[in-house]
Amino acid sequence: MLAGMTTTDALxxxxxxxxxxxxxxxRMTLDPFIxxxxxxxxxxxxxxxxxxxxxxxxxxxxxxxxxxxxITYSRHECxxxxxxGIWFENRLMQLVLRHLAELPVHSPAHRYLLVEVADECRHSxxxxxxxxxxxxxxxxxxxxxxxxxxxxxxxxxHTFGYVLILAVEELLDVINRATMKDDRIHPVSRDIAKLHVxxxxxxxxxxxxxxxxxxxxxxEEERQGVQSLAPxxxxxxxxxxxxxxxxxxxxxxxxxxxxxSNPHHRARVVQGLAKxxxxxxxxxxxxxxxxxTWRDLGLVA
Length: 301
Known about the structure:
Residues 1-8 have low confidence and may be disordered. 66% of the residues lie in helices and 0% in strands. By secondary structure, it is mostly helical. It is globular and about 60 Å long. It contains 13 helices and no strands.
């Protein structure tokens, strides 16, 4: 980490934003066991995610499903997304806690980041509760974390960590916003999406403020470290929107392959990452030299 970057005296905008976000959390911190009506059975009365956001949407496998089978499939995909959410948030909390370990207690960012970790803990309990009540397998990524677990050794590690946090938050935010506004969606899924959107907005705000302020202070080695690792790490995030175990559990032969090759799903991933990739272009993480890699990985149009 850069000398002097552990104090918010060196990062005044981040310090001010931390104070604002801590105050916002005091005004609105949501308990998922109060805000979500868990008395409603998690059944197949309605879709659990918008059909258009399901990886098989528009494929031959989708067309062959009955309306009832499509809704059941959506319940499993929602449970898999919750499982991926727990997996991601576990790693994001580790990133934040590593950063916290280097911040002085009097820093406004120290207090705010503890609030963020508490938010993520509640979100993970919410996702776990959905999975337990949904009657599905206990979905969760089996993928090796790869670049995600190698942060301690890379230049610009905290900057890279917040790029990764933004990738997860922005992609989930687009899906959650579509879910919470859709009258076709099961009420429990809509409640979960609403809560997640409300609190993750704070996390996105902190990450963007921090990155905007820190990026110009990085040396060339640190910038290159972030620029070289970011595409592969974001590709891991995008890849985990498809869980092979869903297709195995439902007996959809060739489902994983169909989902991965589905142009509609690939376009949705690009759409979900659009706010992130636009921000990273403005910041300089994505530049003319690295853009072809992002395109080859299917992360930008």
